Records
---
Amino acid sequence: MNQLIEVDDRLAPVQGVLADALARVEARFDAQLGSDLPAVRELCAHVERYRGKMLRPTLVVLCALAADPRAARRPETTHVTESHVTVAAVCEMVHMATLVHDDVLDEAENRRRGRTVNHLYGNEAAVILGDYLIASAFELCTQLDSVSSARLIGGVSMTTCAGELLQLRFRDDYSIDEQTYFEIVERKTAALIAASCELGALHSDSNPETARLLAEFGRGLGVAFQVQDDLLDLTGEEAIVGKSLGRDLAKGKLTLPMIHHLALADPTQRGRSLRLAEAAAGNDNDAHNAARSLRQALDATASISHARDTARRLADQARARLSRLHDSPAREFLNRLAVAAVDRAY
Amino acid sequence: MNQLIEVDDRLAPVQGVLADALARVEARFDAQLGSDLPAVRELCAHVERYRGKMLRPTLVVLCALAADPRAARRPETTHVTESHVTVAAVCEMVHMATLVHDDVLDEAENRRRGRTVNHLYGNEAAVILGDYLIASAFELCTQLDSVSSARLIGGVSMTTCAGELLQLRFRDDYSIDEQTYFEIVERKTAALIAASCELGALHSDSNPETARLLAEFGRGLGVAFQVQDDLLDLTGEEAIVGKSLGRDLAKGKLTLPMIHHLALADPTQRGRSLRLAEAAAGNDNDAHNAARSLRQALDATASISHARDTARRLADQARARLSRLHDSPAREFLNRLAVAAVDRAY
């Protein structure tokens, strides 16, 4: 994520601490996935190519800094502990596991400008590899001194799965409302992002109130981030986003713009839009035209801008939580990250 | 498993303690899977029907008793602790997760005389439900006082997945040898069974040597159990075993009888047997005839009896470990369980 941010003099020291910390997270990640079996090593090496924005490790580190009173003015002197590195690697590993399984469920062929595991090695390898990543994340968790972090990660992983099951339940259900959409997003995406922020703070010498504030910041950021992701799936350019797009419609998943549009459209338009959505799910030229017509229909009810405004409002609400922390370069970094999360084109 | 054993006067008290403990394990299992979401509850309720032999919880409880010097003579007075119950529920939950995902990979339609999750709810629900079960197991693990049990479970779950990935790598590879077969089985099946035995002992007041012995007993029992499972897939009666059979051949998985047969058969017979294996993978009448011809070919090289003898020898070796524990009804129960594991028809 940090490549989305313009780093000025004030943020430069944080950027340096962050880069060092993320390099340690990558090393911890790779070490944990080592295996004596070539079959396992090969697949894990492929997963390492999935690592893109490193949003969750970035949040662990920035929240660790923002929560630590000593780091308020001089982040470059701050000690990012082994616990922070472990927790960051765990959060990224849980996230990778969901990506690998999501790609199986979505029948996606591309991710981060590369081929998905399911596309290259088959669904079976992808299912087992996802399981291996989850198990590795939990095993790594137990290297921490206390069980409370492992409990938080275990609980959040349950919540993430529950969100995915809820989403599946509403697949092809064109009556899904905004409230249900947000219930899904809070569970399947925001819970782990909130936990990343909370764990960063908890492993610093911060007070519980700070950890709670940063968890709430993460929750809001997570929802905003997912709304933007869903927008990009509908309106983004595949070459820029770097993964298969249009998968939501193709798999009968209605996201915020469509839900808003269907609620506002008259019955005739509603029927027409649903037919367009179905046609847009294909891979041919007709699909391309249908997708364009659908975007025009969404614009006519201002549904794209509704989703964009919602994402920005949620990001603003998340940023408001930060104002209750002491001022610091790390806090400012988090602030700009929340802006970038909803302004990004990939 | 205990229904496979003839319980005489000596074992009756253990049987009573075991039945009480397993009821508590079931309650812990169900409580952990509770959710506010009907979509999650419905799927979890279906998984509870999968519970069959409860082999892993049974081993946790019996090893807890066998390892505890106080339980040597009067098992009915033994306290099966909350930790034992938790550990047993965790082991069963990890096992359930692998069953749910295995059924997706194997495209199986039936398990324990019911429909599989993937058959009823689709592959997507089954993949996510498996993830939910793994996450629930780890979350439950963190309710234990120490992290060492959680670490053992995390590590064993990694090993189980690594075994599955190794198995996948050798799918459709007709040159697989017995050594590789046992490497797969030790990881994908025996590691969790060994951990069940070890954790039962570790949560009793036993010495480390006893826990190590029981882990070794579990490892041997686990391999023997899987060899017998693979035999039943090849030679069992679907109505008796209660799940889809012949899946190994259908999915290109060679197990001990076939590996032994192909190594001994002359080139002509080898080619014929491979064609029969392919034909037996279907669902029609020809497949039935091919399966019968294949069994005759396997008999001609004594490959069925080789596998059966191997299972018995492994079970005997496992039982020999028990002789180094003090004599007790629980130890005798474990002894008979190891005999039953390789004599069973389901």
Note: Chain A touches chain B through 47 residues (CB under 8 Å).
---
Amino acid sequence: MFETAELGRTVSKAEFRQAEQELHSRILQLQQKLRNSTRSLIIIVSGVEGAGKGEVVDRLNRWLDSRDVQTHAFWDETDEEIQRPRYWRYWRCLPARGSVAIMFGSWYTSPIVNLALGQSDQADLDEEINRINSLEQTLSVDGAIIVKLWFHLPRQIQKQRLESDAKVSKFKKSPLLEDFSKSYDAFLSVSERAIRLSDTGYAPWHIIEASDLRYRDIAMGSILVNCLQEALDDEQEPATNSPARPGHLLDDDDIIAGVLKSGASKTTVLDSVDLSQHLDPASYDEQLPALQEKLGQLAWQLFQQRRNTVMVFEGWDGAGKGSAIRRVTSAMDARLYRVIPIAAPSDEELAHHYLWRFWRHIPRAGHMTIYDRSWYGRVLVERVEKFASKQQWLRSYQEINEFEEQLVDHGTILCKFWIHIDQDEQLRRFKLRQQDPRKQHKITDEDWRNRDKWHAYEEAVNDLVAHTSTSRTPWTLMAGNDKKFARVQILKTICERMALASQ
Amino acid sequence: MFETAELGRTVSKAEFRQAEQELHSRILQLQQKLRNSTRSLIIIVSGVEGAGKGEVVDRLNRWLDSRDVQTHAFWDETDEEIQRPRYWRYWRCLPARGSVAIMFGSWYTSPIVNLALGQSDQADLDEEINRINSLEQTLSVDGAIIVKLWFHLPRQIQKQRLESDAKVSKFKKSPLLEDFSKSYDAFLSVSERAIRLSDTGYAPWHIIEASDLRYRDIAMGSILVNCLQEALDDEQEPATNSPARPGHLLDDDDIIAGVLKSGASKTTVLDSVDLSQHLDPASYDEQLPALQEKLGQLAWQLFQQRRNTVMVFEGWDGAGKGSAIRRVTSAMDARLYRVIPIAAPSDEELAHHYLWRFWRHIPRAGHMTIYDRSWYGRVLVERVEKFASKQQWLRSYQEINEFEEQLVDHGTILCKFWIHIDQDEQLRRFKLRQQDPRKQHKITDEDWRNRDKWHAYEEAVNDLVAHTSTSRTPWTLMAGNDKKFARVQILKTICERMALASQ
């Protein structure tokens, strides 16, 4: 989920100055409009430690006209608060119509911190998120505009940031910092779940890459302006229950791109894959058989342990999915796995929900199913070719997450690979295929047509990673320009996952 | 919640015969229409033991054309099922487009039974209901028509039913029966929560009174016909996310009334209040001071224990709310309670969500707030007078339930009274007020106008009980024709609740 907020986007000083002025005056105009409306504005500022939430709150207070703006920090509960139901402290801070509340920390803070520190369990978090969703829905249908901002930092940058903060001022260092940094993974995996479950149509999350301070502030401002504009333009009663629109990353990118001209925001996760990686033939010849032998043993071991495995192979046409799958299957006893190539659905499959055809092939205990293309077709080809409506593919992120969650809850080992190549490499392979009589059947007019939609697919893959790569069901983006490198890396990844599971 | 399914509705043999024929042919017509559509039908049959779920399933199979109908009973998981994620067993039973699945037992069964038997906790139930809601939404937006039927029996009738069942046939007696009957309360309170949390716009629950077998079957048939009609008339794509319409009891009553002509279904909970109850003046003079003394002591005791109390008084104009409240307050130290009379909201209150004005007055630890009229105005006067839109008051049931749940989760003692009188008694009291110069100010033109809306208020009270009377936040419907009886009963109820809480 957070991979798409680790792309190293930056904004230059000059660009910042111009955009900042523009945003400042837009925000003041919109605040005036808000003041004369029946709506209120709640800005929730959250994210990892070190992302500069305090600076963000300061910036917001500078941008907004301070009349009718209140900033609330939720520290320890007061005496008055402890004596009443928990949400009383939030209800008393809710802004009146026409005014603004900036929530520095919010109803999200304690459920996330408690679970990350092991003081509660996942069911507690889920229960609390239900409560939060209800509250946000209640406020939103009553006219509140809820803007939820999550500021993200990659591990390495967080570490640097915290260390330099600590040098500058002991005072600013929260006592929890040390724990947080240590439990970066725990905190992120909990946050990811909280965000995913509370990313609703009436109060969506906006994940902002906070490594570059200028990019962070411009992104935040652009998103705020857009949310206010949309809400205040809409003169009707606020939507009672707009369909869950899971995630807005790409939409946000477009919005930020409208403010910035440099295109910093239009990077996708695929740009972060280093396609120059390769493996020399000698190492390949040495590593491949060793890995295959290991895989064969692990498959038997997991059979005995009755653990099942599901593998998903996706990637560009010509990326080498088929040949990678063959390297996997040839390592294992044929009784242990099945390969399910996903082409057009059968009549019976069409008569059911699109996930039904994948549920059918879920392996029994100890077995493995390898999907050659998969349920992700919904958000790849069906999205790009418009076979599915936008509403259909948007909601399928959530459906897919729930499906995969059930797999891993059951104990299934799930590996998802996207094999990435660039356009030049694809062209080279297509031409090779055309020349080779044994491979001509593998290349069709459709493959050529798909090349024109390269950018649409890039966006689709970016969204797919943003929405369906979770800490429990991560995507592996595999550099595929060098086939040998890709095959060995895939086998390695699978062996690692299986070995971990079999312990 | 179940109070409105304990009204003793019956259907005569003659009426049954006619309605049954009508329903049978309507169902066959609609099934034919379903067959030619892209929709499928899932009927979930659940409810208390002894309600005749087996008979209902038989009846459904007789009514429907058996081609394209499958009945699924979910007993213990098979080997095949255990080896896969839990919902695999449900996915494999999902009906194809055009066909019907009758689920005898369903995804609801084990979460409810587990919690009722103490094998899981409430957070587990809530988590599972989230999963179920997602599944039902997934299926529903894909075209499935999900009809969820809950058959209810009052405790006494369940007991008789189970005993006579046991006499007729040892074979039909499930081994769980004995446990269930013992844990009737636990089972009902869990079911109530499960129903409440899964009563969504895309898959609402229908609670059916099952004491009279003929009424039960006609009610079921009428609801099924109506659901099919609505869904199949609607040629558009199914709503992706219709607003949660909590409960459909009254709508169902109207639908059933359309099939039956006797009006059996148009009874409301208020009809079940025995207004002939009274107390002679001598007993009143004896009991009142004793109860007041007890209440005074309990109030101090709860102050020391730092437990807070919230009381809600609602009722017809002239029912005696004010005089009942005075009997309560005069028993207690004035530092311990506040009475909040609810009239028109202030400017500041209007600028917030309608619940904000009630949150403000939530008492501190050890204190009590008595609301003279309350947040229920939203679903009473605002509903009847159309101050709130249907969507607004419909969604407020859920908002109110969540608000009250937070109170009781915090440990607040919550008492909710509806003081009931009949129209004649109200008229008598209004006339008395007009004649008494000290009371003339208490009667206005509005009071007279409200009398014309008696039936609308009856429906509103029925819905209010159906939706907001839960095992943790029950309504007390108090017979108020005899004021003395009502006052003593109210004091008794309060003392009992407080005494229980202070233990």
Note: Residues 2-153+185-266 of chain A form a domain with the Rossmann fold fold (CATH 3.40.50.300).
